[in-house]
Amino acid sequence: xxWHSGAEFFAMGGYGLYVWGSYGVAAVLMFAExxxxxxxxxxxxxxxxxxxxxxx
Amino acid sequence: xxGNFRLFNFAAPSRFYALSGALIxxxxxxxxxxxxxxxxxxxxxxxxxxxxxxxxRIIFIHxxxxxxxxxxxxxxxxxxxxxxAFKARLASMVARAIAPTGAMFAFLALWSGAFWGKxxxxxxxxxxxxxxxxxxxxxxxxxxxxxxxxxxxxxxxDNAGALLALVGAINVPIIYFSVKWWNTLHQGASxxxxxxxxxxxxxxxxxxxxxxxCWAYAFAVVFMxxxxxxxxxxxxxxxxxxxxxxxxxx
Lengths: 56, 250
Fold this sequence. Notes:
Largest sheet of chain A: none
Number of helices of chain B: 9
Shape of chain B: globular
Shape of chain A: rod-shaped
Structural class of chain B: mainly alpha
Largest sheet of chain B: none
Radius of gyration of chain A: 22 Å
Distance between the termini of chain B: 35 Å
Helix content of chain B: over 70%
Largest interface: A-B, 35 and 44 residues
Order of helices and strands of chain B: HHHHHHHHH
Number of helices of chain A: 2
Low-confidence stretches of chain A: none
Radius of gyration of chain B: 21 Å
Number of domains of chain B: 1
Mean pLDDT of chain A: 91
Order of helices and strands of chain A: HH
Low-confidence stretches of chain B: none
Oligomer: heterodimer
Structural class of chain A: mainly alpha
Helix content of chain A: over 70%
């Protein structure tokens, strides 16, 4: 085990800012992207429901 | 000639929509499980590095993100090229669906690289060959997205995008070999096919597990975006009508 306490874990041997700054942004982006994509999918479904079949 | 392209008939957007919809939850499941294992190994099993301390743990997101940004670019350019050459609609849609995810990974590689460079090199940024060519990769993704969004005619937009993507693909081997061709501040390849790993085996394993997690993530999110693009483009098709208005009679 590398860490003896939660504080030690978050401190990352003094590199906490850099380690969590990297992983934090990764987490934000990787939650935001699927969320935005599912909103786009929902919008496309609604627009398709409105559009109906093409008049020929 | 027409008979040779039955494969593309099989890849009809309607069939892809159903198939990918069934696969997406599995990719999410794999992504979450592998990320949990990879992060556990990276933070709790892999030892503190003798020279870099715990700052090196950025590697478990930095290297997978950088690899994904390069691989996804080649996959994007490949599908864009297939869509252009064979008028395969789905291939062009997949290419467009990959671009934002590739750009996200390129940004993440640069961002985590800056946060790693500061404590180890003493600077957030340096115009080093590896870093500069990765920045160009990000710009290629953004340029591709801007180009295809700027052209209203979908077919023309796909073709123009394919040309840009294919020409830009030359940048990927430049990124990969930059640490060999030039004297860079950036270190050499972490994993080599010809030499034994220079890192502890738990570090290598954690990095590979995180890479597979990123792969699963990329499949899931790219499939989701492809499905949205299919609905946007085929909103007048019969099968879409049946999908969004299941009760209505045609």
